[in-house]
Each structure stands twice: as structure tokens, then as C-alpha cells.
Amino acid sequence: MKEVLSGNEAIARGAFEAGCKVAMAYPGTPSTEILQTIADNYKESIYCAWGSNEKTAFETALGSSIAGVRSLVAMKHVGLNVAADPLFTAAYTGVGKGFIIITADDPSNHSSQNEQDNRWYGIHSKVPVLEPSDSQECIDFVKYGFELSEKFDVPVIIRLTTRVSHSKSICNLSNPLKVEANFDYKKNVRKYIMVPSHSNPQHVILEKKLQEISKWSRDSIFSKEEILDTEIGIVTSGLTYQYVKEVFPNYSILKLGLVYPVSIEKIKKFRDKVKKLYFIEELEPILEFQARMADIKIDLGKNKIPNYHEFSVERLKSIFFENIDFEDKEQKYNFNLPPRPPVLCAGCPHRATFYNLGKKGYIVHGDIGCYTLGFADPLNGMDTTICMGASITMGNGFSIVNKLSSDKKKVISIIGESTFMHSGLTGTVDAAYNNLSNTIIVLDNSVTAMTGHQDNPMTGKTLMGENAPIFDIKKFAEAANIKKIDFVDGYYVKKIEELIEEHVNFDGPSMIVVKKPCVLKKGVKTNPPLKINQEKCKKCKMCLKIGCPAISLTKEGNIVIDETMCAGCTVCYQVCSFHAIEHTKN
Amino acid sequence: MVKNILLNGVGGQGILLVSEILVEAFLLAGYDVKKNEIHGMSQRGGIVNSHIRYGDKIYSPTIPYGEADIIISFEYCEALRFLGYLKNNGIIIFNTQKIIPISVSTGKFNYPENVEEIIQKLNIKYDKFDAFEYAKEFGLPKASNIALLAYSSKYFQEIDDFIWEKALRKYIKEKYFEKNFEIFNNLRKK
């Protein structure tokens, strides 16, 4: 049967067809739909769950693999930084049944803080890496990836990029393997307890496995050689192959699916068939690096091609053909259109908090989520954002300097509840343990919002759709010895302001939990929209300072509320000094 | 043969649904087909675009700059946003509905009111339709995406009526199907 699937849907399909039994993840663009698809379509045959973070998800899936069932873990590229600790040692232990790690990289940072190329992780951790170039290969590489993992007793990384994850192409679907989910575990301390006397020999074993894989991959199904014009031969992989086929339809191509360890023998044979050898890779020179280490003569690679930002057909053309330049046309078709940047939604429960923070000018350490948008004009309520959980620990660092410095600052750390579950707990413990005057604000909107509304330990639901106990943040903070804890409704502008004031002047670690569900969350009812009484409005534009997309200034200079957008959160009403904002329904 | 269709507009207009229907239609018509769009960070009101390519054999899932055969824009000024993607003899079909961005409502940018004039001056083939008004009069303003698709369907002669019906049926929820299909058929006959 033929169906059009996205790369992410195809990974889920491949897992289903391969008899995978356990799938774990922490949501992150562009990887989120993998587990979402498993939950929607295949949860009868695959147990799927969100971990609190990528490390817990990774170790859980590894555990299931060693217990005796095929397992996978999925994450975005930066998630593998969090899971890097188990990755390097899982390479030494090997697996039980097949174990696949999906990393979805994001060249050009469509929705990320950096554009790292996770194929380096394969080389660094000594874990084989497969790189599919379309959705059909996503299915196939998962299936063969499990076989590779079991044949050589290694974890296998499948590396996607945003354009593979989110592109749709035609797939042939097959029936799933019929597999029972039973224990297939034998105690083997030399393999599974990584004390020095065991891990030293395991490392040597791993190096041998990699050599065998490199030899085996010469004949594997993962690569494709297309000999056409032999003047130039191009070695490439992943989605870049698709661009290369359009830009150089007549040249010979060696497309590698197993990008680490590459088959050196295969590249050498291809080298012999062509006059000039090019390596064309998006981001980092992973294939080129391995070929250069093997002394293969390369005529063109990263000496010509930039190692930043994603490729496209037109980008490759402008790199290779001097007479092709898109800038003139781009200039001609630049109409200086009004931008439509992402903003906090109308009715967003984070708005009142950032309005207060921006107004006061405190030093605010932010985190990863929708609320990162609190940095933007006109809210201007954030100073730093680095990575998951760094709000609290960066705030801890500033609090230490506060202890040392004669010049005192008010320090705040602000973090969403899902990010708090992911990486906020340990930083909170640090703040209490070291008695740092850091005000931790947890924005609890009861959903992992930015990735498209996933559940987490604070929402009361699992990915399988079952009810779950809700993490008790108050008890946790008390146990950690946070000395002052308060809860407030996300729409109460004044109350939030007062609490922040109290907390930043409090000596010691403290926490404010701002609670209100995301206005877009399923089942959340909005209030009737508000309107502006034009007779009372003094055009002071105070309400425009909350950055609500439903409020706008007309050409005539009037301020109006878009009733179709307004969620009736009343934040604008609360900041208006002239009582000019009213309910539409009285 | 390779044909490229670019859909664009504003988050919340139902552009991705239309792109799913088109892809399904090309699949049913026997073509190789790929599509691409960027998910995430595109909250309500942001810029949305979807690339669809069909033909004998498709490689890149994104349309090369300057090679779109057809652009369907779901919002008036957004018709200009990706106009550079259109090939020389390509056509742009745009919805005349205006959605004012926050950058305009806060007074920082002007909303261009002369979109049609700009397109004319560039000697670009175009076709316009007030899909929102049509759908509103029909009593189903949310179906303006289907109205625009139906209006544009005359530019896809390779898709037969029964394929359109099958593709629409796959992606439109059963309880909304009849109304949407009525809109589609009314406009398709025009």
C-alpha cells in the first residue's frame, strides 16, 4: 500500500513494521511528531511515553532493549547533548535487542538555539550513524537499523534534519513483524557493569565491531552508487543527495546511508571510477573527515562549501556556478512587507508576568519554551536564554556575584513547568543548598506548549492517554528547602507584581508558581472578548505595552480590540487607568 | 515533467490542510509527489508556506527559488511575500482577504494596499478571489481555504472530479464534509 508520509511519520511506521516495543522521547522540534504518531496510530503494539528529559528517555529505552525488546528513543539535536552521558557508555555495553537513537537536527535553526551536526556524536561516541534522505528511507533505515544494532551488538543513531522530518513523500507500507514482548535478558556483568576492569576490554571490543561494520557496509543496502559522467564524482548523504541530483543531474554520485563508520573501500573504488572527487555535505564534513583520515584524494569539499546553514537547490547553484546569482531577483522582489513575528498569543497566561518583569527592569534569566518570546518588544522581560534549565542555574551564578559584589541586583529565573521537570529540579536544589537569593518563577500552563501541546509530569496525563498523578511542586520546593513559596493566577497583574516585589527583596531562595492553563489547550474555555470604550479611552497606549496581538492602533489613531482574537484574559483591562476597557457582554 | 506549487499565508488559515489535499490528489493521479513546510514556532498569525512538487520523479522537497509554476496566496499582502519564487510565465492566485499583522497594528509598518498594482506592473499573470467573503456568505467562514482551493482547481486540469472528492473526503472531517464539498463543487463549476 502506498501512502504519503512525513519523515517523522515514516520513522514511527518503520518502528511499527520492525516490531519495536518501546519508544521514548522528550518533545522537541523537529522530532516531536515521531512519538505523537506512535501514540496516535501504533500504541496497541508499541508502548510509548514521554521522559522528563532526553537522558531519562534514553536510559529507559536502553533498559528496555537490554531487557529484551526492540526499543527506540527520539529527540531533537540538542536533546542528545542532555543524553550524551548514557550514549558514550551504551556504545561500550552494547544492546540487548535492537536499540535506535533518533536525532532530528535543525540546520538553519528553524526552531533551535544552535545548529550542531549530530553526526559528530557518532564519531565521538563510536556509535554507527544512518542518514535517510526521504520518508521511504526513514522506514527502511529503522528496520535495517534494528538489524544492524542486533547483528553487531551496538546502539544505532538515525540522524534526521528538519527537511527530512517535515517533508512528505510517497512510501510503500508493509505488514509489521509479529513479535512478542518478552524478557530476553541474561545477567552479564562484564557487559553491563562499566567499572574500569570491564569498560577497558569493552572499548577494545567496540573498536573491533566498528572495523567489522565498516567492512560489512561495503555491501550493505545503505549506500547507492550512480555512475554517469565520470568527469566528476560526488560523495554525499541525507537530504543533500536530493539537492545534488537536481543541481548535478549528469555527474556520478556515491550516496552513503551509513555515514559512520563509512566504507573506506567503497569510497576508494568510487574514487578510481571518476576523475575528480567532490564531497558535498550540509553543515559539517563528516564523510570528508573520514575519507581524509584514510588518505583519499579529495578535489573539493569544505574548502569550497560553507559549514553553516541548510542547503537548497538555489544555494548549491550559487556556490558552484559563478553566473548564477539570486540576489538581483531577491532585491527586485523585496517589497518591505510588514513582518509577522511569533508573539505570545492573545490570552497567553505568561503575558502579565513578563509585563511586570519588563517594567521593573530586573535581571531575568529565561529558558526554552513559548515564553522565551517574553524577551521581545514591547515586553522586554528577559536577559538570557541558553538551554533547557539554564534559567535557574544562570540565576544562581548571578546570585553568587550578588553575594560578592557591593553593587546589588535583583535576580530572577523564569522557567516553564515542562522545562522545570526536564532540567529545573537540580538547579533549584543548588539554589537552596547554597542559600542563594534567586527568585525562581515557574510558569505552569499545564502543557508542553511550544512543541504542539504534549503532556508532562505536571499535566496529569501520559502519552498513552492514561491519567497520571501530578507532580507536587510545593512539596518538592519544601523538600529542597526553598524558604518562600507562593502561587498566583497568571492573569492577576497586580498580585504578580506584588509577589515579585516581595520575593526579590527576600533574603534566600524563593519560588513563585504562576498557574494558568495555556489558552490554546484542549478544553480550556476562554472568556467573552473585551472592547474599548472610545469615549473613555485617552489614547495613552498603555494597553499596547502588553504586546497582545488582539489589540491594535488604527490609522485614525484609535485603539481597538479584535473580538475574534480576544480571549477575555483582562490583562489589558487591568493595566488601563481610565476604565476604558469593557466586557462586550454585560 | 516537474510542477511546483507554493501555498502561503498566515497561521490559522488552514493552509496545511489544503496542501495535504493537493498532495493526496497528485498521489491518486499517479504522480511522484513531495511537500515540505516548517513546523514549530509558527504560532497563530505567523507566516506559513507549503511547497508542493509533483511530476515523474521528484528529488528536492523544496521548490528552487524562481521555479514555482503556481503560487496560491491565502492573504492579500502575503501575495507579495514569496513572489520571487514564481517562474517567468507562472501564475499567482490570491485571496483578497486582509489579515493585519501586529507590526502594522502597533504602527511600525504600513500595510501595502497596492498589491494588485505591483503584480500588474511586474507583468505577472494573476487571478484573485475573495474566498473569505464567499465562504462567509455561504455561512461557513472557516471554509475559505476550501473555497480558495476550489477556485484554483481550474489550474489543475490533470485532477479529475472523482480524485478531488476522494482527496477532500480523506482530510475533511465527516461532519463538515457535505458543506465543504458543496462549496467546492459550486466554485469548481464557475
Task: Describe this structure as you would to a colleague.
The complex is a heterodimer of chains A (586) and B (190). Chain A is of the alpha/beta class. Chain A has four domains: 2-219, Rossmann fold, CATH 3.40.50.970; 224-332, Rossmann fold; 351-515, Rossmann fold (3-Layer(aba) Sandwich), CATH 3.40.50; 530-583, Alpha-Beta Plaits, CATH 3.30.70. The longest helix of chain A has 21 residues, at 196-216. The mean pLDDT of chain A is 96. Chain B has 190 residues and is of the alpha/beta class. Chain B has a single domain (2-188), classed as 3-Layer(aba) Sandwich (Pyruvate-ferredoxin Oxidoreductase, domain 3), CATH 3.40.920.10. Chain B has helices at residues 15-28, 102-105, 115-121, 131-138, 144-152, 161-171, 174-188; strands spanning 2-10, 32-36, 47-55, 68-73, 86-95, 125-129. A six-stranded mixed β-sheet of chain B has the order 2-3-1-4-5-6, covered by helices on one side. In chain B, helix 1 (15-28) crosses helix 6, helix 4 packs across helix 5 and helix 5 runs parallel beside helix 7. Chain B is globular and about 45 Å long. The relative contact order of chain B is 0.17. Classes of the chains: A alpha/beta (586), B alpha/beta (190). Chains A and B meet through strand 8, helix 11, helix 14, helix 15 and strand 20 of A and helix 1, strand 2 and helix 2 of B. Strand 8 (167-172) of chain A pairs antiparallel with strand 2 of chain B.
